[in-house]
Amino acid sequence: MQELTGLTSIASGPPEVLHSSASLPWSGFLLERHLTHPGERQLSHTDRHVITLLCSKQSIGEHLTLQGMFAPFSKKAGAITVLPAGPVLPVRIRTAAQHIHCGLDDAFVQRIANEMDRSPSTMPHSQTMHDNVISRLLKLLETEMLTGGETGILYAESLAQALTVRYLSLNENSDQAIARQISPLPQAILRRVKEYMEEHLQNNLSLDELARETNYSRGYFLRMFRAAAGKTPHQYLTERRIERAKSMLQDAEETSLINIAARCGFSSQSHMTRVFREQIGVTPSAFKRMP
Question: Whole-model pTM?
Fold first, then answer.
């Protein structure tokens, strides 16, 4: 069994790390799937903000309250538990369970908090709830982790950005959570970003890289791009990669699907084939054979 470095589990353990994003070029956040075992975990400390999704049918145990007494808990599949950076109170686990854990670096969280339209009045506190948005974002990040990050850094960073904004908004009421109307990117800046994407289509573009072209923060860039283009930067980038692939597939002199995938920015031929089929309805090979 492996102890997770820098990401303290909320359950007793130690946890068994089944999958980890540690080898991927993701900065500011770490995703792992854990199998936690029955037992007791002593008082500890985490330097990351931890968001956990329970993937098993249930988790039963006891947690130490601030009053110094152990209180029973029972969580069902889909429960989201958040744990801000800081002390982790002792926990006694009665049942084995699998979880998706996301650890957000404190600097990463603070940066996003400073970029929000309305900074949170208070940081989130330890709590358990059901939140469909957080659940979906964690599952999408896990899918991307399990594919080895094949969709690209921009996609993973966009998911992590949305997850962190949702986390920071947990303590806000509905009135406070309403964001001001976002203005679209000015057309000249939008054109410059699109030109940059086109020139670097074969690269694994990052959110920071694109935001630098606009002189806006990452959070503002994401929302302003969508307001201007009607789609996310990742969706637009995927469309442009597909269009380049279609053009190259129609070139009778270009026969290597591996070469086309690389020149269009796909992580592999299989990645291009999957995305191409999803977007166009046929595989690249079938498209190439079309009259």
Answer: 0.89
